[in-house]
Amino acid sequence: MKEHAVYMQRCLELAAMAAAEGESPVGSVIVKEGRVLGEAFEKSRQLKDITRHAEVLAIMNAVEEHGSCEGAVLYTNAEPCILCSYVIRHHKIAAVVFSQYSGELGGAGSRYPILTAEDINAWSKPPQVIVYNENS
């Protein structure tokens, strides 16, 4: 889908900025109704805070600027980890689009699927997960 391509390209630009600063190359963008609500790149090393992942910072940016990101789509170039998945679920993100799985700590593809679990009563329905492939 062309819309996904535009936002995934921005994620890659943000990821390159993170890499240039010695961070893990991850960038995230929050979009709702065609409008970018927030964006960020990884800053865990720079800020000496393991919670400063791109997804968390993008959500914080969206909430700070717009009060909420409920119902939005989160784009990121890497599968959100378990930590980020908790934050995504808490803020009621409607969909998550990513381009590569993160392995054993991924929030969707690991044995701890916090992002997609339907049996956590404290949260509403899990977000739609879309694995983006530029050829699809």
Automatic annotation (TrEMBL):
One Pfam family here: dCMP_cyt_deam_1
Gene3D superfamilies: Cytidine Deaminase, domain 2 (3.40.140.10)
InterPro entries with a match to the protein in the record: APOBEC/CMP_deaminase_Zn-bd, CMP_dCMP_dom, Cytidine_deaminase-like
Superkingdom classification of source: Bacteria
CDD domains: nucleoside_deaminase (cd01285)
Domain named CMP/dCMP-type deaminase: residues: 2-112
Keywords assigned by UniProt, alphabetized: Metal-binding, Zinc
SUPFAM superfamilies for the chain: Cytidine deaminase-like
Name by which UniProt lists this protein: Nucleoside deaminase
